[in-house]
Each structure stands twice: as structure tokens, then as C-alpha cells.
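Hey, can you fold this one?
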Amino acid sequence: MSASTVTEHTPAPLTPYSYVREKMLGLMQALADGIRIDSLMADQLSQISERARLSNEDEMADGLLDVTRQHRVAVLEGQGRLAALEARYAILFPDEA
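Sure. Predicted structure:
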């Protein structure tokens, strides 16, 4: 393998600008994934709670609804964090927003 072949496959070092950009994009993706997961969990737990209520398992249904609410609140909080991060990203990287 020649030296030119090695340098052709070596990625360019990240500049502070690109490093921050990549970290912000990664964080936005992680937040979006978390929002999606919390939303799915809330939907599933809500359905299970409904079934428990139909089976006269009211205490279990109430407990599941409490957990469902926690996930729905987490969705709202995540959406707020993501919106704030997206707004900051648009300010820092206006050409890429």
C-alpha cells in the first residue's frame, strides 16, 4: 500500500466549527430518538392501561396511566429542548439550517 493510498482514506481533522456542528447534530438526533421512544411508550402503556381497566384491574390501570403521563411529559420536555437546540443551531450555522 502506497503512502498516497493511506492519506486518501484518512479523514480530515475536525475544525472547532465542524466539531461543534457534529456534536449539535448528534444531540438533536438523540433528542428526536428519545422523543419518539417516549411517545411510543406512552401509546403502548395507555393501551395496556385500557385493557387493565376493561379487566377491572383499576389499581393497575391507574398506575399505568401515571407512567403514561410521565412519558407524555417527557415528550413535551424533549420537544422543547429540541426546538431550543434547533433555534441555536440555526443561529450558529445559518447556511445549514
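Residues 15-92 form one domain. Let me know if you want another pass with a different chain boundary.
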